[in-house]
Amino acid sequence: MLKIDCFAHVCPPNFYQDMLALDPKLPSKMPFLATPVLSDMTLRQSHASPDIKQIISFVNLNPEDYLEAEEALELVKKANQELLDILNHYPNQFRGGVAMLALNHIKGSLEILTNFVQENPKILGVQLFTRHLGKSLADPSFKPIFAKCHQLDLPIWLHPVFDERKPDNNIIFSWEYEQSQAMLELVEAGYFQEFPHLKIIVHHAGAMVPYFAERINHILPKHLAQDFKKFYVDTALLGNAKGLELAIEYFGHDRVLFGTDAPLGILPAGPSQEIIQALDSLQLPEEISQKIYYHNITSLI
């Protein structure tokens, strides 16, 4: 069965060198950047599975954290073009890519959505992070991005980043807290009420949300609790069949998309096979498996 991995990552080599020039300590701050197949597309191809086509998005490096608005925007545009070049060079490996924005330049980011994302069929949407410039993603200053994505019917890929105000950030627990908190902030900001056709794909199977479903249902007003089920989620749980079962039960099989976080999580090229084994162990009906592996993401893009 053909599978589309909706949430795989890259760090294009020229972009990585540009970011290293801004901060030479990046490899020690973010050890995952040492994963060779993030940047080496030839090596990545040697690990590719013939029945999986990846949708690739950038790792959580953003020029807006290092540069003033105009310079950040120019570097983002350069990185997006490099991403598109990779897609054109490896059409059999990649189904498409996800653009980056510089949210310290809202006008320029809106132009990227209109003039780059919408105009290039291989660029399927845009990636946003749980915090930008130290602020919640639901900060009103970022609202025009959501309005434009809604207007253009462009999906948003939501990826966690750490809240740098906290001294105990860690990749195991607080990573998933940041994702869950951002979901709550977007719901409480009323974005699904104002933008009813908004498409947001949440990494890591919706993080803590399925587990705390009844807290959501009993604490939030009914219409906001229902808005949580309007997110789409991927399957990037490093396996974990019971966790996937809970996510499918909570969000519904129409809103769960095969996604792996490749090539991160399990060396050398990611947890694709572990996630496939976990999904297959659930013995879902063939129709539902096809939705999760292929049809749901195809419908979105």
From TrEMBL:
<dbReference type="Pfam" id="PF04909">
    <property type="entry name" value="Amidohydro_2"/>
</dbReference>
<dbReference type="InterPro" id="IPR006680">
    <property type="entry name" value="Amidohydro-rel"/>
</dbReference>
<feature type="domain" description="Amidohydrolase-related">
    <location>
        <begin position="66"/>
        <end position="297"/>
    </location>
</feature>
<keyword id="KW-0456">Lyase</keyword>
<protein>
    <submittedName>
        <fullName>Amidohydrolase</fullName>
    </submittedName>
</protein>
<dbReference type="InterPro" id="IPR032466">
    <property type="entry name" value="Metal_Hydrolase"/>
</dbReference>
<keyword id="KW-0378">Hydrolase</keyword>
<dbReference type="GO" id="GO:0016787">
    <property type="term" value="F:hydrolase activity"/>
</dbReference>
<dbReference type="GO" id="GO:0019748">
    <property type="term" value="P:secondary metabolic process"/>
</dbReference>
<dbReference type="InterPro" id="IPR032465">
    <property type="entry name" value="ACMSD"/>
</dbReference>
<dbReference type="GO" id="GO:0005737">
    <property type="term" value="C:cytoplasm"/>
</dbReference>
<dbReference type="GO" id="GO:0016831">
    <property type="term" value="F:carboxy-lyase activity"/>
</dbReference>
